[in-house]
Specification:
Blueprint lengths: L1 E4 L5 H7 L3 E7 L13 H16 L5 E4 L22 H17 L4 E6 L5 H15 L2 E6 L20 H10 L30 H4 L12 H24 L3
Parallel strand pairs: 1-3, 2-3, 2-4, 4-5
Length: 245
């Protein structure tokens, strides 16, 4: 299977490639990840797992990797600084425009691969709207939701800047972890009924903007998790390629 990058191709080459390809658009964020992780965490992870998954996919003749969107709906992180955010409404418009543009360029099958929890609902709605409006196949997925949860992470998977994300960053880009700043979150997420997303006014302040204990991070475990996630993304790409149009 051949994966190519949209940005590296000419209009003529894309006109030929896109109708038979699956286009993968990674969606990230630029936001605070505690005192110890760089703000590109979600963008780096989404782009890396998209590229690895594209290389492993087997069903489409081509996978075209669109440039990663490095901004998401991150207003809940603004009080901590270090965050560049779009409102959810703005993100919805951005995704609608990008999907319309891709369809106008000839794309018929697309996957929005999301790397930030604050984008999840907006990505899902954008995919549904684009399929209806443009007559194309569009899927949306959070990359971490595509693979079974490993027992090592338990209730803290995927968390935010906790042990999982710190392990993943340690595997992908070790210089993105500030080892000297590692410390446990001072609070815990409130207990909730399974399937219920519970938001409280002071939630993020109480946990200082990150979850669990990043000191438990392990780069080898992060590398193993990345390998499973890449396989899962490949399966998702294959499913988009095989979905009835």
């Amino acid at each position: 299977m051949t994966a190519v990058r949209w940005a590296d191709r000419t209009r003529e080459e894309l006109r030929s490639l896109l109708p038979e390809a699956v286009v993968v658009l990674p969606i990230g964020a630029t936001e605070q990840h505690g005192p110890h992780l760089v703000t590109a965490m979600d963008t780096l992870a989404a782009e890396a797992v998209a590229a690895a998954g594209a290389a492993r996919a087997t069903r489409p003749e081509r996978v075209v990797l669109a440039p990663t969107l490095p901004f998401g709906a991150s207003h809940h992180h603004l009080p901590f600084g270090g965050t560049l955010s779009l409102t959810a409404a703005t993100l919805a418009h951005v995704l609608a425009d990008l999907l319309e543009s891709a369809a106008a360029s000839g794309a018929r099958r697309l996957l929005l691969l999301n790397g930030h929890g604050g984008n999840s609902a907006t990505c899902a709605q954008a995919a549904a709207d684009a399929a209806r409006l443009h007559g194309i196949v569009v899927a949306a997925a959070d990359y971490w939701a595509l693979a079974p949860v490993d027992g090592a992470w338990g209730e803290h998977f995927p968390g935010h800047a906790g042990a999982f994300e710190t392990s993943l960053m340690g595997a992908l880009r070790p210089d993105g972890v500030r080892e000297q700043a590692l410390r446990p979150s001072p609070g815990t997420l409130p207990a909730a009924v399974d399937g219920l997303r519970l938001e409280t006014p002071r939630l993020w302040a109480q946990i200082d903007g990150f979850t669990d204990d990043p000191r438990r991070a392990d780069a080898a475990a992060g590398a193993a998790a990345f390998d499973r996630l890449a396989d899962a993304v490949a399966r998702a790409i294959d499913a988009v390629a095989e979905a009835p149009a």
